[in-house]
Amino acid sequence: KGKMHGNGKLVSSNRQITYVGQFRNNFKWGKGKALIKSINSLTGVFIANKIEGEGSHIDHRNDTKYFGHFKDGERNGQGNCVYPSGNRFSGLWKNNIPYQGELFLRKGDRLQGEWKDDHFSGSGQIQFFNGNFYEGEWKQNVPNGFGAMKYNDGSVYNGQWKNGKKEGNGV
Q: CA-to-CA distance for 99 and 72, rounded, in angstroms?
């Protein structure tokens, strides 16, 4: 008696959250859309008040758009994110953070590999818009460690990199 069940609209007492969609036994449960503080919107299937499976998250403060898989209310699994800069990430997410995939930069560069703490770190490669190609180790979005750069003029540098710059003579 008095429980929310079926289709409806819920506005929190402080008016910070509005949910329109399906309910089951007082839970957001089924297809719905939540608008949080006019800042974030989540659209998809909700189970026990959390978005699950395929859905979308739009951050209206900076117009970042995520479309993909959710688990326990967080981005988990395969997903795509478009950033206000025009860059876009496609790959795997865990606990709202990308950890492996491809980043397509607006200017035409394409990075592919591992992510850590929301940065390109670990092993990976980048195809630059000018035809240069790097494959090797990364740290904080720049080549760091052993890697090989093949330049568009056909020359190659194999060797150590530090903070995005060649270190030593290489091969």
A: 18
Taking the mean position of all CA atoms in its chain, how far away is CA 5?
33
Pairing of strands 110-116, 97-104: antiparallel
User: How many C-beta neighbours within 10 Å does residue 150 have?
Assistant: 15
Q: What is the pLDDT of residues 145-167, one digit of tens each?
A: 999 999 999 999 999 999 999 99
Size of the chain in residues: 171
Q: Report yes or no on whether pTM surpasses 0.70.
A: yes
Cβ contact 64:75 at 8 Å: no
Using an 8 Å Cβ cutoff, are 140 and 160 in contact? Answer: no
Give the sign of the dihedral formed by CA 18, CA 21, CA 26, CA 27.
negative
